[in-house]
Design brief:
heterodimer; A: 425 residues; alpha/beta; D-Maltodextrin-Binding Protein, domain 2; 2 domains; 9-stranded mixed beta sheet; 18 helices; globular; B: 321 residues; mainly alpha; MetI-like fold
Chain lengths: 425, 321
């Protein structure tokens, strides 16, 4: 009898634990003190200070709501969020880590239409709003927008006696990179460092030339490829194969003064600040210039990527959830984000001032304007064909950059494969 | 592996000579109850393991046979599409390239690992001072995290300033292979890495097999004047047949489902030079959310592995006759 009791107690405990694990984050809608408990899914909270900043600011502005973050490891975030939503999870607010997550979830119908949150103020001031628009309805709002810019190390330029980069054309960028390259072996300073992702060639070319990345004809990428191939051939940039096999990181190379320039998204600002704070970086004076442009361009066009929040279709606290999402892409949310080194999607003078008042930030006017390009376009257009075309682009990018195929053949093959495998042309 | 389980001696029950029908019925009942109790105890022992196996392996495997005939994004209910996924498979160049690459990997990895593991086992199957150190050292790669192995080998094989190419340069090879950066050499590089990692594990299996061969066989052969090769050919190899069969099966299965090493080392590149089936399944299923199509590919992989195993089984059976 006694044994039976213990056994059933053990089973009950196991079942309770399992259920608790499954429903993690759903919780009761109200806490004991009558406050609304809003659950928000976020990733690697300890390493991503923006969540703490947003939640604290939101709770201060809404004393009747308590935010309960559901923390998921960044690397597993996309898979895990798809899985729990498929299981009918009722976490109220869902963080949109990458635009692909949004495409997948909105395509599945897992997100709530929140078009009513888009006011005249948001549409005027929030960059990247349309990234989350499907059939003229908004299913998420961006709180961060990271445009691609050109980071540069002022001390390396001073030592080489070269002027700081301003709005360059791509050929000027190549020339400048060659001029500020110096040293050999351990003392090598690369003129520039480009990530191995195809984005830095394929997507920027599509955005700046206005050509269709999903169209199936990729000859327009030729000039942009010649920029990268020229840079790696001349030794002004670490070559592609070495970058991939050594898994070289752009932030460590830049913050330790090994790369004079790095074209990358504005998210590197917080990486630089972190490196300066914890002492792993040696960089002292740096600046931000606009992304280089194609010759003949009359305004600054760059690509960017949003990070946002959406409301779960199965949310228990829809009103509070909407309040939270609206807050994150408002002036108050922007202040909180800028204070921890992020580029808010909601752009106003106050948040820019806050961002550039942080310790270690450049103080020149050019760096400030570089973060507000004339035109910032979503890096990868989203459609049902996107994932497959991005994969084909990645395959051919590796072959072209590693010299395993000629540029013309690679681009032709990319178009042929896109047409036959994805577009059915 | 060959040790027989200890035999359990049940106390002999001697049936009394005369019993009333009532009593015998009771006895039959209690015997049945005892049998049921024994079965239940047995079940309770395997239940923790079986429950996990059923939940995370058996049910998903069975479900795969159904999902393969549907279109399913894991969020909305699956839609039956008949054999569409399979016809799509036949015309998918990614699928055929990954089948070819998987076969390339398997036919490189299986014989090389088998031969090197056996060679090492023969080398270390003798009484030598400090033999334990050598055996441990060779087993070490298997204990190392695969991700760490992949990253370190990537650095070693780096085409321009990696230590391997620097050594090759210094011995006068002007144009050493560009390893993972080249479409021709990427797969051999992955195979070399995986052989290095796996050889220790299979060596231990062969060592265990070698220990079971009675010394007398060799002594008798020596008396008959057999040389080392003849002893190996006619005693060692045939005696190792069960071990070899076991190793071969394990190697085949692990080679066809290779994923982690390639995912970390090359991500299937450059281009599609090292794209293997498991990776394509992962990409289409987990990453892109096309679970129906990914399940169809899993079934194709299942059929491939199954047919290789059956062939090996038949060959081994014939060899035993």
């Amino acid at each position: 009898m006694k044994r039976k009791l213990i056994a059933s107690a053990a089973i009950a405990a196991a079942v309770a634990l399992t259920l608790a694990g499954c429903s993690g984050g759903a919780g009761a809608p109200t806490s004991s003190d009558g406050k609304t408990v809003l659950s928000v899914s976020v990733w690697s909270m300890a390493k991503t200070p923006e969540f703490g900043a947003l939640i604290n600011a939101f709770e201060a502005a809404n004393p009747d709501i308590t935010v309960q973050p559901v923390d998921i490891a960044a690397a597993d975030y996309s898979t895990k969020i798809t899985t729990v939503l498929a299981g009918g999870d009722s976490t109220d607010v869902i963080g949109m880590k990458a635009i692909q997550d949004f495409t997948k979830l909105s395509g599945e119908g897992a997100l709530l239409d929140i078009s009513d949150l888009v006011t005249a103020d948001t549409s005027a001031k929030v960059t990247g709003l349309d990234s989350y628009k499907v059939d003229n309805k908004y299913y998420a709002l961006p709180y961060r927008w990271d445009s691609w810019v050109l980071f540069y190390n002022k001390d390396i330029f001073d030592a080489a006696g070269q002027p700081y980069p301003t709005t360059l054309t791509w050929p000027q960028y190549v020339d400048l990179a060659k001029k500020v390259t110096s040293g050999d072996g351990d003392s090598k300073i690369w003129g520039t460092f480009q990530v191995t992702w195809p984005t830095i060639v394929q997507n920027i070319a599509a955005v700046q030339t206005g050509k269709d990345f999903l169209g199936g004809d990729y000859s327009f990428m030729k000039d942009q490829y010649n920029v990268s191939l020229d840079l790696q051939k001349s030794g002004a940039m670490m070559d592609y194969s070495t970058s991939t096999s050594t898994k070289a990181g752009y932030a460590p190379l830049f913050t330790t003064g090994k790369a004079a320039m790095v074209p990358i998204g504005s998210w590197m600002i917080s990486g630089i600040q972190q490196a300066m704070k914890d002492g792993t970086g040696t960089i002292k004076n740096w600046g931000i210039a606009p992304m280089p442009q194609i010759p003949g361009a009359t305004s600054v066009t760059t690509m960017g990527t949003p990070t946002g929040f959406a409301v779960n279709k199965n949310a228990k606290n829809v009103d509070a959830a909407k309040k939270f999402v609206a807050f994150t892409s408002s002036a108050a949310g922007a202040q909180a984000l800028a204070a921890v080194g992020n580029s808010p999607a909601y752009q106003d003078a106050a948040s820019t001032a806050t961002l550039f008042s942080l310790p270690g930030m450049p103080t020149d006017a050019e760096s400030k304007t570089a973060l507000s390009p004339d035109k910032a376009v979503l890096d990868t257009p989203q459609a049902p064909t996107t994932a497959a075309i991005v994969q084909i682009g990645t395959d051919e990018h590796q072959l072209i950059m590693a010299g395993q195929t000629s540029l013309d053949d690679g681009l032709k093959e990319m178009g042929d494969r896109a047409n036959s495998e994805v577009l059915n042309k | 592996m060959t040790a027989s389980p200890p035999t359990i001696r049940h106390p002999k029950i001697t049936a009394p000579q005369f019993t009333t029908p009532q009593l015998s019925k009771e006895r039959a009942l209690s015997a049945r109850r005892r049998a049921r109790r024994t079965a239940l105890i047995g079940w309770s022992f395997i239940l923790p393991n079986f429950a996990g196996f059923a939940l995370f392996t058996l049910i998903p495997v069975v479900a795969c046979f159904f999902i393969a005939f549907t279109q399913w994004d894991a969020y909305n209910p699956p839609v039956l599409v008949g054999v569409n996924n399979f016809t799509r498979l036949l015309g998918d160049s990614n699928f055929w390239i990954s089948v070819r690459n998987t076969a390339y990997y398997a036919f490189g990895h299986i014989p090389l690992t088998l031969a090197i593991a056996l060679g090492l086992a023969l080398l270390l199957n003798r009484a030598l001072r400090g033999i334990g150190i050598f055996r441990t050292a060779l087993f070490f790669p298997y204990l190392t995290s695969l991700v760490a192995v992949a990253i370190v080998f990537n650095l070693l094989f780096a085409p321009d300033n990696g230590p391997i190419n620097q050594i090759l340069n210094s011995v006068g090879i002007a144009n050493p292979p560009r390893w993972t950066a080249s479409t021709e050499w990427a797969m051999p590089t992955v195979i070399i890495t995986s052989v290095w990692r796996d050889m220790g594990y299979y060596m231990i299996l062969f060592l265990a097999g070698l220990q079971t061969i009675p010394r007398e066989y060799y002594e008798a052969a020596e008396v008959d004047g057999a040389n080392a090769w003849q002893r190996f050919r006619n005693i060692t190899l045939p005696s190792l047949r069960p071990t070899t069969y076991f190793v071969l099966i394990l190697l085949t299965i692990s080679s066809f489902k290779v994923f982690d090493l390639i995912q970390v080392m090359t991500e299937g590149g450059p281009g599609r030079a090292t794209l293997v089936l498991s990776q394509l399944i992962y990409r289409d299923g987990i990453v892109q959310g096309d679970y129906g199509y990914a399940s169809a590919m899993s079934l194709a992989l299942f059929v491939i592995v199954l047919s290789f195993t059956i062939v090996q089984f038949k060959l081994s059976e014939r060899g035993n006759k």
